[in-house]
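User: Sequence in, structure out. Go.
Assistant: Echoing your sequence, followed by the structure tokens.
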Amino acid sequence: MTPVQENLLKLLKEIDEICRKHDITYYLAGGTALGAVRNNGFLPWDDDMDLYITRENWKKLEKVIDSEIRPDRGFASTDRNDRYQNPILRYVDKETTTIYRSQALAGAACGQHVEFMVMDPVPRDSEKYKEFRKLLLVYTELLTSYFVVNRQVVNKGSDFDYDTYKYYCDLMDKKGRPYVLKLLEDKIFCYSDSDEECDYYCLRWGLRILMYGRKNYGKPRLEQFEDILVPVGCCAEGIFREAYGDTWMMIPTAQEQETHDSLHSLTLSYVNYIDDYLNFMNKKEAFAKYWDYKKYRVDMLIDKEKNTQNRFKLFGVKHRMHIEHELECKGISPRKLLEERRYSELKILLNEYITEQLSEDIAKWQVFIDVSDDIIYPALMLLIVQGRYHHARKILRIYKNERTPSEDILKAEALAEAVRNISIAIYDNKDLAEAKQICDEWLPKYPDVIDLKRCNLQTKTFFAGTQEELEACLELAEELVSEHPSDGELLKLRGDVLYKLGREEETVLAYLSARRKTRNGIVLNEMRKKLLAMGVDEEIVRNAPLL
């Protein structure tokens, strides 16, 4: 652990003690929960800590926190400090510093902290549901008076309603901030955990709507987190899939690992920093000017984002023309390559289309590169064959907003959903019988799909009951590894067969080799535990190179 993580763990233990004492339910959240399940501790790069808590449990905590909290700790919420304009609650170490640029002006609760994200029930009724989402983003935007929270104000598919925002913004100028915030709170947070009409929780966060199925929380289950057992949702894996997508089990690349830019100190209180500049400011006047600027900034973003959106629509047209021209010049049919199972050539041929359609900006603005189904269908099938069904589903979501799916596209969608359901069965539900059933149905029709190959080997190995069946599994594993020598998950599954056969030395070599060729955190953690159980030195396991 880093020094930052050590202090965060200390804060978590204090919170856990208070919550246990008063029968208050909370759950690890975000990357903290992911670290518990995937790593049994902090994600190596993590520098913050998040918790989930329902509104009812938050009210219970608020009643007891003042009598339980240490003198060098603080507890921040919008109800407790009108300068703390953040919908997320904080348990703060007042002797340290973590100041984010967005919160420097307020200067409230800027020590190292653990954040509570309050979960509010969301109504199932479609009209009430839409109204809830719309008003929540207006509320979190108005809650912060000195910078724009949600910058994607006109992004296609965004719930941000500019006219509603302007109405409440004008009302705030007339009747005051407390009046409008209370009005919105009464409209939004009027449902309780006992309401049967609510299937989802929504987090109070302004950047985007975060909604998770209530069934995934329930009675917490305990997971190892460093040296303590702490609660996560009863189906934490389902929460991860909703939060991070279908690749939640994958360790992100160095470029994808998220850290926070802040002024940071573990030895000096944030008060020493904020006094250096806030004492020279008229805070009331500064907030008023920032509020005026924010209103102007939102108006400016409307025009800016519309222009950006139109620019990427034009990029989409340009890419379509170029892709179709290139394919016409080459005179090669993507469908023919797909039918002949010439996947390497198909990958080269469709690389531009797949890369551009999945690029960050094109995806953000939901731009559809309007090429023919003779290009899209082979691209979808290629992605699924390669184990990128999640990317196929992203393209399908954009496609279905613009075009009625053809029969071929529907076939590709059905295959992508089947592969996804296998992933859910294995990682979320831990039900290999369900995974086997799906695999047995689809593998004969699509024998080249890598996820189906893996599932077939995994389930055959798991259910093998005799030496003869295990030897057949090993033969299949050798065949698949020969076809896919760089696939770390297949290498790991080969190691699993060897482990069941009692060939430990070969298992160790197989696992150490597999570690170098996969970013699947669940797979890596399984191998780590088995290697340690077989007596492999922890230093060797820890230092084995990863992909």
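User: And one key feature?
Assistant: The radius of gyration is 26 Å.
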